[in-house]
Design goal:
Chain A has 112 residues and is mainly β. Helices cover 0% and strands 58% of the residues of chain A. Classes of the chains: A mainly beta (112), B mainly beta (115). Chains A and B meet through β4, β5 and β10 of A and β5 and β10 of B.
Chain lengths: 112, 115
């Protein structure tokens, strides 16, 4: 089992809809999680991080963390075509010396 | 505040050669992590440096090495290049990746093509 897993997609949603991106992790020792967005041909850019159980909101983005289920998600409200990108979930694994491990990424396509 | 700077942006090398990539982190950041990104494998962790010390290493062969200087700038070296080393190499800068909620910021990457 990979340490951080994501569905590769592509996930397609209509403009204005809510996009839901999911991530599971295998190591309960991981405490912090990060969501990055990567446009084609560009480097990843940080969207949000979360380390407490529950929800964290930032504008149109909401990150959710459920440590009991080892599950992280990112919700994008009012999706725009400019949100079309690959979304990478990453966990910081302290019991591996503080290694930031990435999932494979989920490709999101927002259709006008 | 300047971001993470990687040089060169593009590189073409021949099998068997060696290559050195450079990363200048954000001012004040002491942790530099290196990643290899390929379509099939995604982002794979190479190693992490903090205050000139390698603190962590991924599962890559010994041909991949790195170092960090006193000004936090880091270099990675790949010797005896193979076709499979063709990838986007990314470095990420953070205050200290082992911090409780420290964020890592990526440079633009170096696109290495081995022919």
């Amino acid at each position: 089992q990979k340490e951080v897993e994501q569905n590769s997609g592509p996930l397609s949603v209509p403009e204005g809809a809510i996009a839901s991106l999911n991530c599971t992790y295998s190591d309960r020792g991981s405490q912090s999680f990060f969501w990055y967005r990567q446009y084609s041909g560009k480097s990843p850019e940080l969207i949000m991080f979360i380390y407490s159980n529950g929800d964290k909101e930032d504008g149109r983005f909401t990150a959710q963390l459920n440590k009991a289920s080892q599950y992280v998600s990112l919700l994008i409200r009012d999706s725009q075509p400019s949100d079309s990108a690959t979304y990478l979930c990453a966990g910081l694994f302290y019991n591996q010396g503080g290694k930031l491990i990435f999932g494979q990424g989920t490709e999101l396509s927002v259709k006008p | 505040k300047a971001g993470v700077t990687q040089t060169p942006r593009y590189l073409i090398k021949t099998r068997g050669q060696q290559v050195t990539l450079s990363c200048s982190p954000i001012s004040g950041h002491r942790s530099v992590s290196w990643y290899q990104q390929t379509p099939g494998q995604g982002l794979q962790f190479l190693f992490e440096y903090f205050s000139e010390t390698q603190r962590n290493k991924g599962n890559f062969p010994g041909r991949f090495s790195g170092r960090q200087f006193s000004n936090s700038r880091s270099e990675m070296n790949v010797s005896t290049l193979e076709l499979g080393d063709s990838a986007l190499y990314l470095c990420a800068s953070s205050l200290d990746i082992r911090g409780f909620n420290t964020e890592a910021f990526f440079g633009q990457g170096t696109r290495l093509t081995v022919v």
